[in-house]
Amino acid sequence: MNCIQVAYLEAVLVETVKAERLHRCIVVAVQRQDTIVPDQPPFLANAEIDEWLENIDLLSTTYKNFVIISGRGGPIEKEEIRAQVRHLKKIARQMERLAAKNALPEMTEDLIPKLLGDLSFPEENYEKYALRLRAGLYQYYSRQYHHQNTFDLSEIEEKQE
Predict the structure, then answer these.
(1) Number of CB atoms found within 10 A of residue 108's CB
(2) How many Cβ atoms from other residues are within 10 Å of residue 23's Cβ?
(3) What is the pLDDT along the chain (161 residues), one digit of tens a residue?
(4) Which of 149, 132, 53 lies closest to 92 in space, CA to CA?
(5) Going by C-beta distance under 8 Å and a sequence separation of 6 or more, which residues neighbour residue 78?
(6) Phi and psi (nearest 5°) for 48?
(7) What is the spatial distance between Cα 84 and Cα 42, in angstroms, rounded to a whole number?
(8) Does residue 46 sit in helix, strand or coil?
(9) Strand runs (DSSP E) across 3-85, as ranges?
(10) What is the phi/psi pair of residue 5, to 5°?
(11) Could you give the residue ranges of the DSSP H alpha helices within the chain?
């Protein structure tokens, strides 16, 4: 049977709709955060990287014969999923290294150029993506390792203006 399948993984709701002239099913994963963001830094402020990686594994194994649609880039290839996994694992390793040094959250700023260098995106997006990482890395590190109260993300945006 040809179908379009929409999976709301967080709510564990799967809805199937019949469609004509489709050779395979299409899966759209909708969660609190974008699961796969091809060639963009991930949203980290409220992230739980271990759970995120588990969700990607679930998506990759449960729906391995499906076309996966990213909310931020349309259909994605298996390599883009693997790249997201590598990028998230790299971020987690970098956070662990900072934590081992008992670094302050502000030190996450130093990770931004290298993390952005791993991605391929239009140059005009650099500042926007750097800001996303600056806020996300700071929030993530503070929550996971430094155990200080995090501040509203708008404070970082105000500093940038």
Answers:
(1) 27
(2) 6
(3) 334 444 444 333 233 333 333 444 444 444 445 788 888 999 898 889 999 998 888 888 887 777 777 776 677 888 999 999 999 999 999 999 999 999 999 999 999 999 999 999 999 999 999 999 999 999 999 999 977 544 555 555 555 55
(4) 53
(5) 60
(6) -125, 100
(7) 8
(8) coil
(9) 3-8, 13-18, 26-29, 67-70, 74-76
(10) -120, 125
(11) 49-62, 78-100, 112-117, 126-141, 154-160
What is the rounded distance in angstroms from the CA atom of residue 74 to the CA atom of residue 9?
A: 18
Read off the pTM: 0.74
By the 8 A CB rule, do 70 and 76 touch? yes
Beta carbons within 8 Å of 77's beta carbon, 6+ residues apart = none
Token pair recorded at residue 17: 């709709």
- Rounded Cα distance, 104 and 145, in Å: 9
What b-and-e string marks burial along 146-155, b requiring 16 or more CB atoms within 10 Å of the CB? beeebeebee
Q: Any idea which residue has 């030190």 for tokens?
A: 107
What count of residues does the chain have? 161
Distance CA 15, CA 23 (A): 18
Count other C-beta atoms under 10 Å from residue 29's C-beta.
21
Amino acid at 144: Q
Q: CA–CA separation, 38 vs 84, rounded Å? A: 7
